[in-house]
Write a structure and sequence with these properties.
single chain; alpha/beta; D-Maltodextrin-Binding Protein, domain 2; six-stranded mixed β-sheet; globular
């Protein structure tokens, strides 16, 4: 149930959901026009102008991102600012503000900072922004897209992205492009986690917000939000058993050297990077500036290697001596069944229609690859007293 064949980043075509959508096969006549303004007007989005501003908007804009350029999200934001500033036509000046400095140093506040004008543009984490736009949690709904190819399919779904964009515009933010950020991993000090029962009682630092906390609690763990310094102190005192997060952050924090011995690659929570602009800024831009912002965001998203970097970081942790457990689809189903109550509750907040669209996107992608669709969480059987699987590598 546990160990699956290692997938590689080369097997995944990094997918992007941007505004140049195509109609969704088999759906009602709701094709999405290629041009964003036509699309917004066709949807009759309140307050969205159907014509660009007459003259170019001048002056330096504020571009927010939660992390430094050393990380995939920060690198994408830096590239976007540089590309817009170098445009021959429709040039846009944007100054990078890393560390969520425009959002009280809190990535979870970044969406509202954008909406309210503290920031003009942003490249953010869909999971972090879901604290303020719940629909963005669709990428991190527990085990909805547990494999890299699943997450790529979900991030490139026109149906999913179109619905997210409608909701964001209604809140004053225009989404321009999305791309997979990768999956969160779980690092533990000693215990090897192979089944839901293995999480019982584990004291875990959680940085992914309420959705991750709720899921781990439902699985029997003892999740807690704490700062990096608090986590270091708790680890040294033997009061911390593990941590949830992105593998790139584990590498940066030198986890193998600080006492973490096991890595669980479980596909529980995916994430996507989101390129966005404040609606009043979009409204004021000239047609050329809109094209610059959109085309550059789309190009950077399409060339982003965030998901591949997470895969490489996971491999690096194993190479540095951490044991590895990687779940198969049966393992995904077992964990998803144990956390079904969280998925159901969060699914209601996201919206049943959006969840159904996301599930279709993943299922259709698997069918196109000739793979058997995964069982629904409620239909998955929990593992009983089955023989122990092969040891973690």
């Amino acid at each position: 149930m546990i160990m699956s064949q290692r997938s590689t980043a080369r097997s995944i075509c990094v997918a992007v959901a941007a505004l140049a959508f195509v109609s969704v096969p088999g759906r009602a006549a709701e094709s999405v026009p290629a041009d964003y303004v036509d699309w917004a007007c066709a949807l009759k989005v309140p307050g969205m102008p159907c014509n660009a501003g007459g003259e170019a908007l001048t002056g330096e804009l504020k571009l927010s991102v939660a992390v430094a350029p050393a990380f995939p999200l920060g690198a994408a934001a830096k590239s976007w600012a540089e590309a817009m500033g170098a445009a021959a036509s429709g040039r846009i000046e944007a100054k990078l503000h890393p560390g969520a400095a425009l959002a009280q140093r809190d990535a979870g506040r970044e969406f509202f900072a954008l909406r309210d004008g503290a920031a003009d543009l942003a490249v953010g984490s869909a999971l972090a922004w879901s604290a303020q736009l719940p629909a963005l949690a669709i990428y991190a709904l527990p085990w909805i897209a547990p494999e890299p190819a699943d997450l790529a399919a979900l991030a490139s779904s026109p149906e999913v992205a179109g619905e997210l964009m409608k909701r964001a515009v209604a809140d004053g933010v225009v989404l321009l492009a999305m791309a997979p950020l990768g999956h969160r991993s779980l690092a533990t000090v000693e215990r090897v986690v192979r089944s839901p029962a293995d999480l019982a009682g584990l004291r875990l630092r959680v940085t992914g917000g309420p959705l991750v906390v709720e899921t781990l609690a439902a699985l029997g763990a003892r999740p807690e939000a704490m700062s990096f310094i608090q986590a270091q102190d708790a680890l040294a005192a033997g009061r911390l058993d593990g941590q949830d997060g992105m593998a790139t952050s584990f590498v940066a924090a030198r986890f193998p050297a600080t006492g973490y011995r096991q890595l669980l690659r479980w596909g529980a929570f995916g994430d996507a990077m989101v390129f966005a602009v404040r609606r009043p800024v979009w409204n004021a831009w000239s047609s050329a500036q809109r094209k610059t912002a959109l085309d550059s965001a789309r190009a950077i998203a399409s060339s982003a290697t965030a998901a591949a970097r997470e895969e490489a970081a996971e491999a690096a942790l194993v190479a540095q001596g951490m044991g590895e457990v990687r779940l198969t689809r049966a393992g995904h189903a077992a964990f998803a069944a144990a956390a079904a109550s969280v998925r159901a509750a969060r699914g209601q907040a996201i919206g049943a229609d959006l969840v159904a669209a996301a599930e279709r996107a993943v299922a259709e992608a698997r069918e196109a690859q000739g793979q058997v669709p995964a069982a629904a969480p409620e239909a998955a059987a929990l593992p009983g007293n089955a023989p122990a699987p092969a040891p973690a590598r």
